[in-house]
Specification:
The protein has 182 residues and is mainly alpha-helical. It is 65% helix and 0% strand. This is DUF1468 domain-containing protein.
C-alpha cells in the first residue's frame, strides 16, 4: 500500500453489539441443572412401560425417544461442565450484576410469550397462525433492543421468519407426521 492510497474502511462486525461472554461459573451452573434434568428424564423414561408383552419388541416403548434425548442432554451437560472447569469455573470470581438483571428480564419475557402462545393463541387461532405470531413476536421483541438502526428490516425479517415457521410446522406435522393440529 502506498502513502497516497486511503486505508480501506473496515466493515462493522455483526457481533459488535453483543455482550461479553458470561463467566465460566455460569456455564458450570447451567451444566449442573441440565445434567440433573437429563438424569431425571432418563429415570422417568426407564420406568415407563415397555409393552413387550404386547408387541414382542422393546423398540416400541414410549420411553425410548425421551430417554435418548435425555441421554444426549446429559452428555452435552457433562461436556459443558468440563469446558467450564477448564476455563476456570472453580476459581473465585465476581459475576457482573447487570447480566443477572438483564437475563432475568429476558427469561420473564420468553416465559410470558410462551404462556400466551400455549394458553391463549393455540386453540383460538389456526395452529400455523398461532405459531407464526409467536415466532414473529419472539424474534421482534428480542431483536428490538439492538436499536433503531435497521429496525424496519428486522421487523420484516421477523415477519417472514414467523410466517415461514408457521407454514413449515403445519406442513411437516400434517403432511409428514399425519398429525391433525388444532
Amino acid at each position: 500500500m502506498t502513502a497516497q492510497q486511503a486505508p480501506e474502511e473496515e466493515a462493522e462486525s455483526p457481533f459488535s453489539g453483543d455482550r461479553a461472554p458470561l463467566p465460566p461459573r455460569w456455564d458450570l451452573v447451567t451444566a449442573a441443572v441440565l445434567l440433573a434434568f437429563g438424569l431425571g428424564v432418563i429415570a422417568l423414561a426407564w420406568n415407563m412401560p415397555t409393552f413387550v408383552e404386547q408387541s414382542q419388541t422393546g423398540l416400541t416403548a414410549p420411553g425410548i425417544v425421551p430417554g435418548f434425548h435425555a441421554t444426549v442432554i446429559s452428555l452435552l451437560a457433562i461436556v459443558l461442565g468440563l469446558r467450564a472447569v477448564r476455563r476456570g469455573a472453580l476459581r473465585a470470581q465476581s459475576a457482573p450484576a447487570s447480566h443477572a438483571r438483564t437475563d432475568a428480564s429476558r427469561l420473564l419475557i420468553a416465559a410470558v410469550l410462551g404462556t400466551v402462545y400455549a394458553g391463549v393463541l393455540v386453540g383460538r387461532l389456526p395452529f400455523w397462525m398461532a405459531s407464526a405470531l409467536f415466532v414473529f413476536a419472539f424474534t421482534a421483541i428480542f431483536e428490538w433492543e439492538l436499536g433503531p438502526k435497521g429496525r424496519p428490516r428486522r421487523l420484516v425479517e421477523a415477519a417472514l421468519i414467523g410466517l415461514g415457521t408457521g407454514l413449515a410446522v403445519m406442513l411437516v406435522f400434517e403432511r409428514i407426521f399425519l398429525v391433525r393440529l388444532p
